[in-house]
Specification:
With 232 residues, this protein is α+β, with helices and mostly antiparallel strands. The chain has one domain. 25% of the residues lie in helices and 25% in strands. The protein has 7 helices and 11 strands. Strands 1, 2, 3, 4, 5, 8, 9, 10 and 11 form a 9-stranded mixed beta sheet that branches. Strands 6-7 form a two-stranded parallel sheet. α7 links the parallel β10 and β11. It is elongated, with a radius of gyration of 19 Å. This is DUF2971 domain-containing protein.
């Protein structure tokens, strides 16, 4: 269930978003009709879900006569799960390089509005959508009056990601989360178009089309424009 939050920055509903993934993860999404959300402290960035230095100094002051105050924030990361998407009007060569391997990846194209609608069906988890702000962690402040804020800020070094996130806090569910969780999603609403890896062979596109037909999906499929024929 998508729950709007007025304090979280959300792009316009028509904003185009992308998810780059390999074939196995794409098939898992279609077969399960569930979106995988990673545990926040499992990301490669060790700062994920942490605070900037100015915020940390304030938290330390507040914790002086509140034992366990800082421990809450340290433990909170393992209860928050995230699905990351890339904001871009066009395909990103960098995203293909980072998130796909062996020339056999795919990209899902969607919009913020479609994502909101896809998360509306009843589900166990409340999900919030927010755009990531990229800041200087040595100088800039991250507010902590909302438990989702630490997960919607990243260091400026990651600006190329242009990330928007679906975030869920599972603390109240008392779950033992390993790598992450799967949450129900309306696949047909979520996916607007599928793009095939720019360096893939024709057989791979035919395979993807055949697999989707057998699974009962009829998404529009295109080969990436990044490897189109030159004009001269």
């Amino acid at each position: 269930m998508y729950v709007p939050n007025s304090q979280i920055t959300l792009p316009d509903p028509d904003t185009i978003v992308w998810k780059y993934l390999d074939l196995s993860k794409f098939l898992d999404l279609l077969l399960c009709r569930q979106l995988f959300m990673s545990r926040s402290d499992k990301f490669e960035d060790q700062y994920e879900g942490t605070f900037s230095e100015p915020t940390f100094e304030e938290l330390k002051r507040l914790s002086e006569d509140k034992p366990g105050f800082l421990d809450y924030y340290k433990n909170h990361r393992k209860n928050v799960v995230v699905s990351s998407w890339h904001i871009n009007e066009y395909e990103s060569f960098a995203m293909w390089q980072i998130f796909t391997r062996n020339n056999e990846g795919l990209a899902i194209q969607s919009t913020i509005g479609r994502m909101q609608e896809a998360l509306k069906p009843e589900t166990r988890y409340e999900q919030h959508i927010g755009a990531v702000d990229y800041i200087d962690y040595k100088k800039e402040y991250i507010p902590f009056d909302n438990s989702f804020f630490p997960f919607l800020f990243k260091r400026k070094s990651f600006q190329y990601e242009r990330e928007v996130r679906i975030v869920a806090d599972l603390t109240e569910h008392n779950l033992s989360i390993n790598e992450g969780v799967k949450t129900d999603v309306d696949i047909n609403q979520l996916i607007e178009k599928i793009y095939i890896h720019p360096k893939s062979e024709n057989w791979y596109k035919r395979l993807v089309m055949q697999l989707m037909q057998q699974l009962g999906f009829d998404f529009e499929i295109e080969k990436s424009d990044l490897e189109s024929d030159i004009l001269i």
